[in-house]
Amino acid sequence: MNPIAFAIPVFLVLIGLEFWVAHSRGVTVYRLKDSLTSINVGIMSEFAKAMGGLISIVMYSLITDRFGSYVWDLSNPMTWVSALILYDFCYYWVHRTGHEINILWASHVVHHSSEEFNLSTALRQSSTGFLFRWIFYIPLALLGYPVKVFVIVGLIDFVYQYWVHTQLIGKLGWLEYVMVTPSNHRVHHGQNDYCIDKNYGGIFSFWDRMFGTYAAERDEESPVYGIRKPLESWNPLWANFHHFLLIWDQVKSAQRWQHKLMYLFGKPSWSPEQNDTVGVFQTATFSRFDTPVSGVLRKIFFIGTVSGVALLMVFFFVQSGLSTNARMAYCTVMILALGAIGWIMTRARDHGGTGSAGAQTHA
Amino acid sequence: MAVQAAQVPKRMLSLALTDGLLCLSAAWLAWKSAGTLGFRFACGLVAIPALLGFLRFSGLYPLEAWHQLFTIMSASAALPLLAISIQWPDSAVAQKRQFILIFLGSTMLLGLLISGLGKLRMYDQALGLLSMLAMLLFLIRHGEKIQIAGAVVMLFGSVLFVVKVSVPPWLAPGDWLHMGMALGLILIAPKLRATEESGALDNFA
């Protein structure tokens, strides 16, 4: 059984709890469409991983078997502690390159595409990251850490990062120096100038201090969440692939092969005219994406997401009994269905739906 | 935790010595050479398997699997980079760190997948030999005599290694590879053009 199956109910209960605490404090940290999109993106990433996620484990096992040079005693706690620290070190570089290399940003951008910051944002995970992430964990495989250790410390690293996606917990004193906390992760999700390319750590924040990428949250300038080239969609398929399509267009239109390579492997902000210069962010004029949708569409969106979660749980329980073809078909249908729901919700903007809202100015 | 047990026959001493020689010369060139950044990166990448080979064959710290892996990396990534740096010293791959890393990253990944995991050793060996052949052909037309001699020695040592020649009997095929590489690099390096210092390529638009 996929351990994520056990984590999902806990994640959802915690989202409910965060919503309730925020509500009782009179703070708004959730918007329905944004949160449902985050959950849909998360469901989609689980189905995508079910189709191809084994690639990480297979590659890791192959490298360990062929080139792993040490034997580790699994009953020794130091094996696990050292593996977790090394995993987190590798994660730092996965994450950093995910922000600083355009083709990898195309995959990771989905996680940052929410303009809100709450526990549902943590679920907004990439559906394509599994294709290349294993490359960064090769050092662990060469050191011979068994695949079981790799999977377990990976889960610990993943689950730890859930709780730091909240605005309801302030600064945590000395812990900020060692661990990734909600405060320093808020900076990571900000698009303010001081937040760009900062705080990449997964569990430990000292990697950022070590490599010069740490920034503390500023009391006088709260982070504004989201990305500089806004997603402007509720469609999880578009969230996953829009930046890949942008890169495709850029590479096609580039005249020199150096430029083509820079569009692929340079910084996301790179252009022949500006090099790596990142523009100045105007906090005052930023407005969050929203679309006017009818109450009926809202209900369809909500029911679609709830059904998605339910069908993902069903999948986790029945997948071992399904043939490969049936598994692939199940996942493909679910991915397309989630894409269709997102498309309908976003399309309401183009066709002038009947709901309220419009663009909201960020305070 | 334990290092894999390793048997170190006495005849491997020559391999340790020649690997040590290759490691020192490649590391020296990576550090001090006047060649392009690409050339120096390539030398650095050659020095790594040589160091692992020295540790392995001397019995000091045998990590046989790592030695094999980095040898594959060196053949499939460092030698092509060396050839590019010599043939096109003005190219972005020879001069600019970002392009060197892109090149090394992709060629090392291919080497890992094809030769390392796919066990198709012909891939990295052929790539290494072709790179050396390309260097030789280029230097015959554009290089100085000493550089041509260096490229010949390098290619000669590699061919002897690939066809498993062990003459005289106290030398292993690998010794020819190590000595050929070390001497070849030393002879080629001094006449190379230096990395452009102005950083003009930073703004190659």
SSE string of chain B: EHHHHHHHH
Radius of gyration from the alpha-carbon trace of chain A, in angstroms = 21 Å
Q: Give the terminus-to-terminus CA distance of chain B.
A: 52 Å
The main pleated sheet of chain A reads as: 2 strands, antiparallel
| Category by helix and strand content of chain A | mainly alpha
Fraction of helical residues of chain B: over 70%
User: Largest interface, by Cβ-Cβ below 8 angstroms: which chains and how many residues each?
Assistant: A-B, 25 and 22 residues
Low confidence ranges of chain A:
353-363
- Which value, in Å, is the CA radius of gyration of chain B? 17 Å
Alpha-beta classification of chain B: mainly alpha
Shape of chain B: globular
Distance between the termini of chain A: 45 Å
Dominant shape of chain A: globular
Q: Uncertain spans of chain B, ≥5 residues at pLDDT below 50?
A: 2-6, 197-205
- Rounded mean pLDDT score of chain A: 92
The tally of helices of chain A reads: 16
Count of all domains of chain A: 1
Helix content of chain A: 55-70%
Number of helices of chain B: 8
Strand segment tally of chain A: 3
Order of helices and strands of chain A: HHHEHHHHHHHHHHHEHHE
Summarize this entry quickly.
By secondary structure, chain A is mainly α. Helices cover 59% and strands 2% of the residues of chain A. Chain A has one domain.
Describe the protein.
Chain A has 363 residues and is mainly α. Chain A has one domain. In chain A, 59% of the residues lie in helices and 2% in strands. Chain A contains 16 helices and 3 strands. In chain A, α5 runs antiparallel to α13 and α15 packs antiparallel against α16. The radius of gyration of chain A is 21 Å and the shape is globular. Chain B has 205 residues and is an all-alpha fold. Chain B contains 8 helices and 1 strand, in the order βαααααααα. Chain B has one domain. The longest helix of chain B is centred in the middle third of the chain and has 24 residues.
